[in-house]
Amino acid sequence: MTKRNQVPDLTGVRRLGGSFRDPAGFLFFENDIPLRQVNPVYADNFKLLTGSGLYQELSDAGQLISHEIVPEHKGLDGKAWCVLRPKWLSFVSYPYEWSFFQLQQAAVLTLDINLKAMAKGMILKDASAWNIQFDGCRPVLVDTLSLERYDKSKPWVAYRQFCQHFLNPLLLAAYCDATVLQEFIFRREGFSAAYAASRLPWRTRLNLGILMHVHLNKRLSVNTSGSDPAATFSFEKLERVLLHLRGMVASLKPRASKTTWEDYYSGSISGEGYLNEKAAVVEELIQLTNGITATDLGCNNGYFSRMLQQAGYRVIAIDSDVQAIDQLARANHQSPVNSLLTIVADISNPSPALGWRNSEDKQLIDRLEADTCLSLALWHHLYFQYNIPLADIAAFTASICRQFLIVEYVPVDDKKTQIISRGKEQLIPGYSREAFEKAVSVFFRIIEIRMLSEEKRIIYLLKRNT
């Protein structure tokens, strides 16, 4: 029996639920500080990663998460070769929450890292989309231990995973429907070549790259240990394959389609007058808030998300419209300020905890908490389209809002409300300004009220009750 004084003090220490697949190491938390344990089996690879200059090159470029080595730390089980303290990212997202452009950027990053690694005698042993996170709008590899020594006599073992997690879903989004990316929520292992080939149009067989990487490769997708097109390649040939894949991925564009909300502020409502008045009010109210993080629920094209960003917030911009989010992600990528992350998510049906024992991906609601929340032209949709009571909407919003809420009340006689309430007249008696204020007053107190003359809408600045 183990003596009491031999038992390590694990107070405040817990292993990350989803970090268990790689024998090289795992993530754990110590007093809420994230640490990565590096096991002895990875020692030689870690020495090569740092000694070759690859780690410094990738971290300096913002392509690999930076870390500090924690001196004399023995890890969670006392057997660590070393322990790293990686840079902390304020928000964790998953591939089913990304737009086409985000997955495309993550794919290009993966290939670029692999090319740089090969030049230093290393290679990616994993090419999982879950190994990528977004630091603001920029993708970064967070799995430091996914790089290993490159054996030129062996194929790139992660080739098939790259195709399943990046190439195949991007092709499906480009040729079929951009919403296919949300299928990642139940396709954790990605999109097989057989599945992609069955959905891609026949004309894609005339594209040499798609023919080789998808249609001819589909017979291999059912064999998890079979050969891949990269199987017998030398360094030079594998390098050409990676460059070819990069060109393919970078040239793809999402299949265009007209969506309900992508031109909400330019074409669907009264337009410039309303937008200008609303923008002035929201900007004024943002100046009355304070904090570090902000969430924009139903952000649409991100017009107001950028106001939060300009006010100094780190912003999570969320909308279910994949095309609107993709346009925002593209525009955001050009911004010199890297403090806005776009997320594709349906607030009325947020993603649950997923993965093994529901411990690998955290549910969306647990990740959304912010100092300030923006909720413009959203509540009437939740109420009439999804039959969610105002009290429930208020409770949900309060659960993710630490301090301030800027929220828009859209009256029942508004043109948009009249459209979405058709056939649901029985809900109208429960929807009023009085009912709205009663619902929010349970959790918030009213700080400011602004009436919009153009549309008779009302914008409130609320503060959480203490």
UniProtKB/TrEMBL annotation:
SUPFAM superfamilies assigned: S-adenosyl-L-methionine-dependent methyltransferases
Lineage, highest ranks first: Bacteria, Pseudomonadati, Bacteroidota, Chitinophagia, Chitinophagales
Domain Tellurite resistance methyltransferase TehB-like, residue spans: 282-349
Name of the protein in its database record: Tellurite resistance methyltransferase TehB-like domain-containing protein
Pfam families from the UniProt entry: TehB
InterPro entries: SAM-dependent_MTases_sf, TehB-like_dom
